Amino acid sequence: MRKAQLAGLAAGISFMAMGAAQAVEIEYWQYVFDSRVQAMDQLIAKFEAANPDITVKQTTFPYADYQTRVVAAKVAGQGPDVVQLFYGWTDQFVNGGLIKPLDPAVFPHAEIESDFFPIVSAMKRGDDYYGLPTAVRSLALFYNKAIFAEAGVEPPSNLEELLAAAEATTKRDGSGNITTAGITMDMAGQDHHWWREVLVRQNGGVPYDADGNVAYNDAAGAAALKFYTDLQTEKKVGLVGFMDEGQAAFRAGMAAMTIDGTFRLGAFAGNPFEWGVVELPADANGLRSNYSSYFANAIGATSEGEELVAAQKFLQYISSPEAMQIWLEVVGELPARRDVALTETNLADPIRGPFLKGLEYAHTTKFYDEAAQRQTSIDMVNRVLLEGQSIEDALKQAAEAEQAIIDQARQ
Amino acid sequence: MASANAISQQGPVRFWDRLSIGTKRVIWAWAFLALPIIFYAGIRFYPTFQAFWLSLTNWDLLRPAQFIGFANYQKMFADPIFWKVFNNTFLYLIIGTPLSLVISFVIAYYLDRVKLMHGFIRALYFLPYLTTAAAMGWVWRWFYQPVPIGVINGFLSTFGIPQQPFLRSVDQALFSILIPAIWAGLGFQIIIFMAGLRAIPNTFYEAARIDGLGNWAILRKITIPLLKPTTVFLVVFSSIGFLRIFDQVYNMTSNDPGGPLNSTKPLVLMIYQTAFSSYQMGYAAAQTVVLFTILLIVSLLQLYVLREKK
User: Fold this and answer.
1) Which of A70, B54, B121, B253 could be cross-linked to B285 through a Cys-Cys bond (beta carbons 3.0 to 4.6 Å apart)?
2) CA of B145 to nearest chain A CA: how many angstroms apart?
3) Is this prediction's pTM over 0.90?
C-alpha cells in the first residue's frame, strides 16, 4: 500500500517534471510603439491560452536602438525566437545571419502567395521566404475637415485640386508668414515615399530600374522634385520645418493636409477636430500610385529544437486571420491577407477604405539602407530650398549619392 | 610535518615583518592603486587599442573583421562630408570655448562682489547645468521654430523684424545649437571661476590698493595671472566638451540628425551614425581614432601654451 503510494508519488513527480520540460519559453522582439505592444500582449494571451505548454516573452526596444539590439544579441548568441523587422532590413538581416528561412512544410509557398498581398514577395530571397507580415501599411492624404469647411473646399482627388485646396486653406499673417499650412512638407516623414513612388511615376518616370539602380535622374524626376519644392517656393502653401514635424502640425490643427500612413491613425485618433482621409491624389490622367510597406515577423537564427517548433506555431498564429483582425482593431494597420483586408465593411469604411484602395496599386521600394536613402531625399530638397541649387543639379547629386549607397550595400 | 607547516606559514609573515614601514606603505598604496589601474586598463585602454585595430578592418558587426589596411582612412579623407564635419567640430570648439570662458568669467567676477541674494543668483546660473541636455535641446528646438509657435521668431515679428530660419538654415543652425550648449555649461564654469577668485589672498588686493592700482590694473596684473590654474583647467575641460558635443545637436535636429545638409554635424554624431545606423564599425573606428588624435593634440597644446613659466 505504502509502496504503491510512493510509486504513485514518484510517477506524479516525474510527470510534473516532464510537464516542466515541455513548457517552452520563446522570446518575441519588437520595437516600442504603444498600440503595437498592446496588440501583441493580446495576441500572446490568446496564443498561450490555446497552447498552455508555450509561454511567449515579449521584449521591446526603442525604435532607434532596435536594429542594434538585434545585431548585438546575435553577436552575443542570444537572439530572439521570433523577431519583427522592417521589410527593408531583410537583406541586412539575412546576410547577417540574424533570421532563418521559413520552413516550406510549415509555411507552404503556394498558400503565402495566394493569401497575402503580393508585396509579401519583398520577404523572398532566392526560393525562401524569410518572414510574414501581420499587417501592411499604405499612404493616404489626411485632411482637416474644419479647415476645409471654413475655406469651402472639397477634399482633392487629383494634384490640381490638391494645389487649389492647399492655396484655399493656407493662412498667412501680415508679413506673409504661414500660420496655417495648406499641406505639410516633411521629407523626413512620409513625403520621400510620396516623391519616390508616386510623384516620379505620375510624371512618367520610375524611381528604380529593373535591376534596382536609381533611375529618377531624368525629366520625370525633375518635374516631380519641382512640383514638391514649388509647394514652398512658388505656391507658398507649405514650409519645411513648419511646427517642427508634419504630423505635429496636422495634429495641432495648423495644417489642412498631410500625407501619412496607416500607422498614424492611432496617434490622430485623439485629434481635437474632425479629419478625413482620401486616396493620394491622381495625376491629370487619373494615374494613381502609392507606397506600401510593412513590418514582418521572422524566426531568429538561434531558435532551435522545441523552441523552433514553438516559434513556428507562434508565427503561424500572429499571421492568422484572427491575429490580423485584432491588429487592425488595436493598431489600425491593414491586414496582410487579402480576404481579411478586402471585406465589404473595410472597403466601405471612410478611414480604412482609401488606404485599402491604395494597396491595390501600391509599390514597395527595395531599400538597402532605408535611413541613408531617405537622407539623400532630405538633402536633395534642402539643397534646393536652403542653398538655391537648381532642380537638375540637386536631383543629379541625390541620384549619385543614393546609387553609391546601393553599390556599397551590394558589395 | 607539523613543524614544516608552521615554518611555511610563518615565512611570508616574517618577510612582511622585515619590511620597513615606508615600504609597507608603498605596497599598500600600490595594492589600492592596482584596482583602478586594472579597471582602467580593462575598461578604457584595451577598448582604445582595440579601436585602433578595428579602424584597419571592415568589421560590420555581422561578419568577422577583415584587415583592409588604411582603406577606411583613405575613404574618410576623400569624403567631403568628413571635412565638413571636421570643420563643424572645430567651429564648436573655437567659438564655444573662448565665448563661454569670457562670459562665465565676467559673470563670476561681478557675482563675486554681489552680496544681495548671492546664493540665489548663483543657483540660477547653475540650474541649466543640472538640466538634462535632451530636455533642454527640445525646449530650445521649439524656441527656434517659425511663427506661430516659435517664441524667438514671435518676438522678432512683433518688432517687425523678418523671421529667422535658425535651425532650418545652413548658416545659422550651428550657432543656434551653440548658444544653448554654451548656456548649459556656464553654471559649472562660473562656480569654478568663483572658487578660483576666492582662493586669491585678499592681502594681494590690499597691497595693490595701497600702491594705488586701479580696478583694471588689479584685474590685469593680479586676478587674471593668479587665476591661471583655474583657467587652464576650464579651457581643457570645456574644449573637450565642445569637441565631443552630441546631445544638443542630436536632440535639436533629430529629424535630420546633424542637418540641414550636415551643417551642424559634429564628429561624434558622424561616428554614431556610421557605427549604429550604417553598421560600418571599422569606418567608425577610423573616425574615432581621428577624434582621439584631435583631443590629444588639443589637450597637449593647451597644457603647453598655458604651462607655468618658471
Assistant:
1) B54
2) 7
3) no
Cis status, amide bond into B266, omega within 30 of 0? no
Q: What backbone phi and psi angles, to 5 degrees, belong to B75?
A: -60, -45
**Given a cut of 70, is residue A220 above it in pLDDT?**
yes
Residues in Cβ contact with B46 at an 8 Å cutoff, skipping those fewer than 6 apart? none
Which residue of chain A has the CA closest to B172? Answer: A386
| Contact indicator for B112, B104 with CB cutoff of 8 Å | no
What angle, rounded to 10 degrees, do the helices at B228-243 and B80-111 form?
A: 150
Q: What is the pLDDT of residues A161-218, one digit of tens each?
A: 999 999 999 999 888 889 999 999 999 999 999 999 999 999 999 999 988 899 999 9
Nearest Cβ partner of A369 from B167, B260, B278?
B278
Single-letter amino acid code for the residue at A132: L
Residue A362 has pLDDT above 60, yes or no: yes
Pair type for strands A24-31 and A54-61: parallel
**Cβ–Cβ of A379/B147 closer than 8 Å?**
no
How far apart CA B228 and CA B222 sit, in angstroms, is 10
Q: Which CATH architecture has domain B74-305?
A: Orthogonal Bundle (1.10)
Regions of chain B with pLDDT less than 50: 1-8
Which chain B residues have a beta carbon less than 8 Å from that of A371? 277-278
Q: For domain A24-137+293-363, which CATH number applies: 3.40.50.1820, 3.40.190.10, 3.40.50.10240, 3.90.780.10?
A: 3.40.190.10
Which phi-psi region, left, alpha or beta, contains residue A332 (left: φ > 0; alpha: ψ -120 to 50)? left
Cβ of B61 within 8 Å of Cβ of A371? The answer is no
Listed by start position, the domains of chain A span: 24-137+293-363, 138-291+366-410
ipTM over 0.85: no
Task: Check residue B11 and give its pLDDT.
Answer: 54
Chain-chain contact of B148 with A240 (C-beta, under 8 angstroms): no
Beta-bridged to residue A142, according to DSSP, are A258, A277
Interior/surface letters A259-298, b for 16+ CB within 10 angstroms, e for the rest: bbbbbbbbbbeeeeeebebbbbbbbeeeebbbbbbbbbbb
CB contact under 8 A, A74 and B62: yes
Q: What is the DSSP letter of B19?
A: S
What grid cell was written down for B5? 607547516
* Banded model confidence at residue A2, pLDDT cuts 50, 70, 90: low
CA A36 from chain centre, in angstroms, equals 12
Chains A, B: CB contacts within 8 A come to 75
CB contact under 8 A, A386 and B170: yes
Contact list, B261 vs chain A (CB under 8 Å): 379, 382-383, 386-387
State the pLDDT at residue A360. Answer: 83
Cell of A280: 493620394
The one-character DSSP state at B308 is: P
**CATH fold of the domain at A138-291+366-410:** D-Maltodextrin-Binding Protein; domain 2 (3.40.190)
Q: How many CB atoms lie within 10 A of CB B207?
A: 12
How close A350 gets to chain B, by Cα (Å)? 31
